[in-house]
UniProtKB/TrEMBL annotation:
Its EC number is 1.1.1.22. The active site is at C272 (nucleophile). It comes from the Eukaryota. It holds the Pfam family UDPG_MGDP_dh. This is UDP-glucose 6-dehydrogenase. Residues 328-452 form the UDP-glucose/GDP-mannose dehydrogenase C-terminal domain. The lineage of its organism: Eukaryota, Viridiplantae, Streptophyta, Embryophyta, Tracheophyta. NAD(+) binds at residues 8-13, 33, 38, 86-90, 127-128, 161, 272-275, 342.
Length: 480
């Protein structure tokens, strides 16, 4: 029986390995992590991450050919194939701080593999890493060579949170990069055989190592660039009376452009886009390509502009101050169908409003109060480190209350901000919400979940990203 071990039981390691175990009953899969609480949760009924379809999938194979363990060294030493899906956050200190990827977790995993391995291993980069990382990993693994042969492969993951299980069951492509030597090609074949259990052969792309590593960064940069492009257009729509939904529809009808990923929003979030583009920018700078670096940097700048613009719109339309006013925040996760809050635009918007002394009442169906308080008191980039390395008891923000009902959040609020496109927000009784708020009552829809015309009929002053403004908002233009 082939034995797979995955180091890192997070948003990637857990779902990816559950799918491999489910699709390959002839393979034993063990997911290991240094975080005892995460592994305990993976072995319980309360999984550590919320992802539609994940619970049933894990239940279908846990204890049969899928295992979760903290005994990292034992399972690594027994494995034939080792996936490494540890964090690769943005560095907060030292060389490249604020841009470069922090490979400390990867390096410690590689050193551990080198220490405990007694048989040949295929070591797979599942984490997103800078191009040429495999070269450094090879050096670490072979430094104290004890006669063990290592083959490094790059097999970046393209799943998106909220749709992870579908993405893994039916991927657009699986990408495998390896050395162009006979041993490298044999390793590629071994990994291809795993995916071939359910992925059609023409969807499994094999490349050299550097193409695979760079393709992951490139894919995220291209996706994020689309969002910044449509968000930049949304500002122009508000200035001219064009409607971004109509513009996106018309532009996306061109088959060369396509309709996906053209939804204007308060800005993209999530643990990947910003981190990976900053990393790409850093790599370009290190390779003496400042023009290329500046081109991609602009994608992040427009995203920051979009979040600032949203906060400025709220404050300016509410008589230039939200001091002492209750503002309801509906949704805190970075997108629907996940409880993940890493780099969610809600953090920046909430911090902006708190800076103007607002009182916030926050509701999200999947995010805990502890997580929200932690996010609002944490420093930039500290969020993507293993939880046990983060500040243990961040001071809670007094102007923030977290409630478990959208109506409760809105009661007595001057304004209501929709920050995540949860389906349930589309079906709220907005008349009831309007009646419970002081007047004038405002809605700021950061996800274009609601039809602003319907909200205006109820009596709200309604703002939607990139949609024609009502006269109130025109009279109080936001300073970007
Ligand atoms: N989240 C996504 O949607 C997504 C998608 C594609 C790629 N990625 C990439 O995958 C990687 C992992 O992302 P994630 O979201 O799963 O992160 P995560 O924080 O959810 O999980 C990483 C896990 O690795 C563990 N870990 C860190 N160092 C370790 C070590 N030395 N030994 C054992 N365990 C260790 C941590 O405790 C943590 O549980 C990142 O490089 C990310 O960029 C993420
Ligand atoms: O038209 C759109 C599409 C997305 N978003 C926002 O963009 C962010 C990212 O969304 P999405 O890409 O769906 O989720 P992620 O889980 O961050 O997935 C991205 O990042 C992963 C980690 O690298 C990759 O594996 C995926 O392919 C890539 O889509 C979220 O805040 C979305 O709300 C928009 O604002 N408008």
């Amino acid at each position: 029986m082939v034995k797979i071990c995955c180091i890192g039981a997070g948003y990637v390691g857990g779902p990816t390995m559950a799918v491999i175990a489910h699709k390959c009953p002839d393979i034993k899969v063990v997911v290991v992590d240094i975080s005892v609480s995460r592994i305990t949760a993976w072995n319980s009924d309360q999984l550590p991450i919320y992802e539609p379809g994940l619970d049933d999938l894990v239940k279908s194979c846990r204890g049969k050919n899928l295992f979760f363990s903290t005994d990292v060294e034992k399972h690594v030493s027994e494995a034939d194939i080792i996936f490494v899906s540890v964090n690769t956050p943005t560095k907060t200190r030292g060389l490249g701080a604020g841009k470069a990827a922090d490979l400390a977790y990867w390096e410690s995993a590689a050193r551990m593999i080198a220490d405990v391995s007694k048989s040949d291993k295929i070591v797979i980069e599942k984490s997103t890493v800078p191009v040429k990382t495999a070269e450094a990993i090879e050096k670490i693994l072979t430094h104290n060579n004890k006669g063990v042969n290592y083959q490094i492969l790059s097999n970046p993951e393209f799943l998106a949170e909220g749709t992870a299980i579908n993405d893994l069951f039916a991927p657009d492509r699986v990408l495998i990069g390896g050395r162009e030597t006979p041993e490298g090609q044999r390793a590629i074949k071994a990994l291809k055989d795993v995916y071939a259990h359910w992925v059609p052969e023409e969807r499994i792309l094999c490349t050299n190592l550097w193409s695979a590593e760079l393709s992951k960064l490139a894919a995220n940069a291209f996706l994020a660039q689309r969002i910044s492009s449509v968000n930049a257009m949304s500002a122009l729509c508000e200035a001219t009376g064009a409607d971004i939904t109509q513009v996106s529809h018309a532009v996306g009808k061109d088959t060369r452009i396509g309709h996906k990923f053209l939804n204007a929003s308060v800005g993209f979030g999530g643990s990947c886009f910003q981190k990976d583009i900053l990393n790409l920018v850093y790599i370009c700078e290190c390779n003496g390509l400042p023009e290329v670096a500046n081109y991609w940097k602009q994608v992040i700048k427009v995203n920051d502009y979009q979040k600032n613009r949203f906060v400025n719109r709220i404050v300016s339309s509410m008589f230039n101050t939200v001091s002492g006013k209750k503002i309801a925040i509906l949704g805190f996760a970075f997108k629907k169908d996940t409880g993940d809050t890493r780099e969610t635009p809600a953090i920046d918007v909430c911090k902006g409003l708190l800076g103007d002394k607002a009182n916030l009442s926050i509701y999200d169906p999947q995010v805990t109060e502890e997580q929200i308080q932690r996010d609002l008191s944490m420093n930039k980039f500290d969020w993507d480190h293993p939880v046990h390395l983060q500040p243990m008891s961040p001071s809670s923000v007094k102007q923030v209350s977290v409630v478990w009902d959208a109506y409760e959040a809105a009661k007595g609020a001057h304004g209501l901000c929709i920050m995540t496109e949860w389906d349930e927000f589309k079906n709220l009784d907005y008349k009831k919400i309007y009646d419970s708020m002081p007047k004038p009552a405002f809605v700021f829809d950061g996800r274009n979940v609601m039809d602003p015309k319907k909200l205006r009929e109820i009596g709200f002053i309604a703002y939607s990203i990139g949609k024609p403004l009502d006269s109130w908002l025109k009279d109080m233009p936001a300073v970007a």
